[in-house]
């Protein structure tokens, strides 16, 4: 039993606005979805007014479009071009600074700016799973990425159960949605029916319960609870895509010599978009920067992609010089060897890699083709 | 001491081995002695008991190029098994060498007369040649060169 | 906290070959945790960058470490050029070690190719120090030319002192070389070990490792007793950057030393 109140409550839109104010009042940087540049992006929010009320998305492999909805739903859209790793595991970050004094003595210190205490508003179940996966990768091993750990341990997560999956979603087949059970501070379910526009809200941590207590909420009525439950259950039936129901890890292990890799390599541009939008892809590289005096240096870490030729560079050349081998690396890592390395699959079924692939390569289609090749 | 897995005699069945050994005679070479030269008739072969032998190739205007060294237990020479029975390389004792010497004509005759023995000997020599070919090919990569990755890098 | 390099000072440097240098370093103030043979450090050349380098010596005196570095890129060249007294940054220890204790009661067979001898050097020292716990110690080393052979004096001493069988071979003999010529696997014919009770420790270019491991398997050394040290691109050494993957292995964490039983199928896949 939880040692805090987990009784569901109901918030209206004004209540949601109050939630943003309460979080900001607690010194948190609130980040949530908002419309910008023709997409629903994640950005710092000053108020709940900036949420994408009345906006939806149309998703297909290689296609993303905003569309006006008939209703005022704020969270009836699917995963956008960013994920929360943009904030927890930023694209570029300074790791340390080094100074050399006139005697040649080195002073090397961790040099990160003060990390904001984030509150993430509207974390979808797939993305909540992605955060749990990055937790294991970046903070769950023998060594921890200090920057990630600091930001993550200070982050307040408001999950949002999925009620309207997109055409590229397949979280059900990856076991990560559309509902949420744990790993959040607060969980929201958006309900829009004849009884009005409201949110079912429940606490998943003591701090979540504390924040909830600061809001004026009504105890959830039976009808709202039931509607929320059935809407989420219905969402599970409306996934645009599905992974083949099989042991994907075994399939990856058995497919290293598959001919399908040549087929996908003929389409893949090796651009790395899929790795940038993927909420679990974590690879980074480092660069060394010096100032003009030559006595001050900084180490920066930035996102890298296994589709880059230099990624596997070893003395004379790259280990993975063909697109075939780089796509294979990405997919077999994501669905296969991730298990050995970090104890789970690296895919959460968010569909971003399909949407943002410039040539529309569909991970579910590729896996299905590998499965077919393996059984034929 | 003759190692069991890689020498010519080691993997032959005891009967075949004894039949070969009865034809062998003990010989010795002093350091620097030439044992055979490229192009000569390959009428004998040796199995080294102690010491080492250099296989070399004559290059005009240069010192003889050392291709490989052979040591205890190693077979010296296989050109005796295949026509035209001529040495491809030269051989010289690098240190005092004691070896078993076999007469190629006798061994070939034995192999002709007894196909089981013949097959065993041919197969064993082929394995040794294969092993040396793999080594030579690996060395072609110049793995320990500056980038450890051979030509093209 | 291993995230920031710790200053170490170069106290001695020796030029091993034209492009390879051994640096002995000691902590300026705080020392890193103790290294085990086979593990590696990330060495930071101020303003240039970091490279992974296995320890080639673990000294009791003042927490000193030796690193043998070959100048092949910008960072390794800068590290090689470090003068005595100069400070470098070190992070570590990282990765799996050789785990010499696996050989307890049996024969120890060390096979090195080129600079692969460097990570094996602390293992050889440990085996000599632990004489009695192991049976025969064989050290087989291959080099490009006689001049490229690392630690030549030490090897000579070792061969003379004779607790170990030491054999060296080169690909290209120069004038006056009276030793072996050929691949390091050829030396296996003359080494004295009982394959079934041998633990082999192999380091060198990957093609040399594969050839050696195959040969050892053929002779009857069990695959899990062939310990090999592998190399891939490495940026962080802490398992977070993803660069050093070899299939399921993160070589900074699950390597560099691994059993041939585990890596043989991985090394067989091209561009894995």
Describe it:
The complex is a heterotrimer of chains A (376), B (153) and C (272). Chain A is of the alpha+beta class and 376 residues long. Helices cover 33% and strands 24% of the residues of chain A. Chain A has 13 helices and 16 strands. In chain A, the strands form 4 sheets. An 8-stranded mixed β-sheet of chain A has the order 3-2-8-9-10-11-1-12, with helices on both faces. In chain A, strands 7-6-14-13 form a 4-stranded antiparallel β-sheet, with no helix packed on it. A two-stranded antiparallel sheet of chain A has the order 4-5. Chain A starts with 8 loop residues before the first strand and ends with a helix. The mean pLDDT of chain A is 95. In chain B, the strands form 2 sheets. In chain B, strands 1-8-3-6 form a 4-stranded antiparallel β-sheet. A 4-stranded antiparallel β-sheet of chain B has the order 2-7-4-5, with no helix packed on it. With 153 residues, chain B is of the alpha+beta class. Chain B has one domain: Sandwich (Jelly Rolls). Chain C has 272 residues and is of the alpha/beta class. Chain C has 5 helices and 15 strands. Chain C is globular, with a radius of gyration of 18 Å. Chain C starts with 5 loop residues before the first strand and ends in a 5-residue tail after the last helix. Chain A binds chain B through residues 315-317, and chain B through 147-149, 152-153.
Shape designation of chain B: globular
Strand order of the largest sheet of chain C: 10-9-8-7-11-12-15
Q: Compute the number of structural domains of chain B.
A: 1
Relative helix content of chain B: 25-40%
Helix content percent band of chain C: 10-25%
